[in-house]
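Please go through the protein record below and see whether the fold suits the sequence. Record follows.
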Amino acid sequence: MDPLNLHLTPLQAEGPPMTRTTRRAALKGLALATTGLAVPRIARAAWPDHPVTLVVPFAAGGGNDVTARTLGQFLERELGQPFVIQNRPGAGGEVGINAVADAKPDGYTYGILNTPGLVTIPIERNPRWSLDSFTFVASLVDDPAVIAVHPDSSIRDVAGLVAAARKDPDGVTIAAQGRGSTSFLSVRMLEMAADVTFSTVIYNALPQGVLALGQRQVVGAAANLGEALVMSTGQPWRMLGVMAEERSSMAPDLPTFREQGFDISIGSLRGFVGPRGIPPEVTARISAAIDKVSRDPEYIALCARTQQPLRIVVGEPYAVSLLEQDARFRAMWAKKPWI
């Protein structure tokens, strides 16, 4: 399907869930809303004719950074220009997202932006951008959330973790990254699904949470599966389950939360995103390049080695998934705000 430069309108916090028909109607209206916009003219020189900047809204070494550097080297081969990684951390990803939203829409600045922050930041506060500020080119990686405990813990599964919280309300501590992050919201979703309360301990970065769990400063730790598999190598770390609709090929023996009686699905969906208004011919070219790279056996093997669960979805279906997440998190915020 051709990629769309969609004007996404945030959904209301409450109301009936989107059906297939209403999603299609919304997308049709959103696409039509952009047709009257002035499209910046670009030089007739073939795009790209100079390096492309790829913004990462987090520090080097994290999941988004690994995704950017992996994809960037293959896009360089395909398009013949360097993809320069620019790390712009701060404010839970907002600083880097600002940089993408504010960029000139000429096809020379993109970002590896991820949920939930891309969706939840406009719910939590009032940034100078919203979902309609971007051109959504393709999703790349879908890294589901997990919760782990120390291997010596008596907690063996998700039910055991919930039982411990019921026995000692607020006494079960779980390490997570910043409020609004995947790890934080995964804990909140389990609280809501199981009607329990955990004591969430906020750390700036995953390695700190891994260390805290190893030193038994916390009962558990929440993270993304791919990052957890990398960061926990050689560390005391036993995952209880994965918050996905089905088991991950990266950890096929790890049951889902749904299998254990808790219908929870959340993760970090990383995507290739540009500012709104990029010329359609440029979006078509970069989309085709990403699609071609996604079928390269060397790229697939490298992503497997670096624990990146691929989910390459180009154009409209990627935008639809963001609309659905917007609705879900707004409903969640209405019930129990997390800030």
Observations:
- The two ends are 38 Å apart (CA to CA).
